[in-house]
Amino acid sequence: MLDLKFIRENPDAVKTAVKQKRVGLNVDELLAADQALLELKKKNQALNEERNANSKKMKGASAEEREAVIKRGREIGQEIDQLKEATDAAEKTLQAYLMLVPMIPSPDSPIGPDESGNVEVKTWGKKPEFAFKPKDHVEIINARGWADMERIAAVAGSRSYSLKGDLVLLEHSILRFSLEKLKAKGFTLITVPAMAREHAFIGTGHFPTGRDQVYYLPEDDIYLAGTAEVPLNALHAGEILSEDQLPILYGGVSPCFRREAGSAGRDVRGLIRVHQFNKVEQYILCKNDPEESSRLHKLLLQTSEEILQELELHYRVVEVCTGDMGAGKFKMFDIESWVPSENLFRETHSCSNLHDWQARRTNLRYRDREGTVRFVHTLNNTAIATPRCLVPFLEQHQQVDGTIRIPKALQNWMGGATAL
Fold it and tell me: Could you tell me the fold of the domain covering 4-98?
């Protein structure tokens, strides 16, 4: 959400952002709805002023005059009641438009229609070379008996998974390793539920669009979140923090659920695009300062890169273009890890700076040192998501004898094992 005053004064900038981000919003209709609401509020103010003036006529009025004053007072009251219904409806209409307004992207973000417009800015490591025919992650898992995909599909449906044996230890070792990395960086580790109310999804910008990607439990009127960002963004809703409390760095741990609607038939082999997974999420609240949030955006990206580097995984960083970054993003980077069997990079991390776009939706505020109440900036990035990261991990670290090499940084979490 953007400040309404900004939208009124900068309609062309908002229209450009709408076009660049492919958002289904007519800015002229929004402005018309805004004007209609203003007119209703003016009428309401005029009626209230007339009612006050009419009430004052009672003093010293004759009996006949009193009857006329009372009659007019009733008429004004009815007009105000009728106007309130129209005003409430107009406010809802305007609010629905405002929920669709995108963040103005950074002027140096690449402009493009979709992921084809993303720009590679960095690669790390080398593509693994094998002196044997490498297997894909499903073949590796099946050969080692590390999953039970068919049986669990009969229990929980397609695109579910069940890891077994040492792969369970590997998954949780990677999660624990990532948590220790965040702790060392000054993040407060926090577990959050996978369930959240509707307002939390509205606050992050997952709603009103994106409802088709979320599981809904109608009997409890609650939704299953696809990231810890959803409950973390709502954690301080309505509070007024002090500047001294900022920045707040959270390392959120949660199970995650995504319907992945619309992706049937593509990118669904094995552990790719499963409906339930585990994730450690980096989430930051900071003061409303573009330089400060830019610095912290780099910290989020650096932290995830360090995790992948210590896991010895070849990856690249891409700057996400306007058409692929989503409505609320000011600036965004993806980290994509190399998948040898597909000869391509797959996204494993998504690092976003949203400035005050989410904060305005969630009412996340702080009082600065001059006493002014301002909206915070919010940022987020994946620290690690499993089992998604297991796909490049297993494929990049496979060895000729069928074992999986364990990077040095992970060996302590695996009981000293150098291979599985």
Answer: Helix Hairpins (1.10.287)
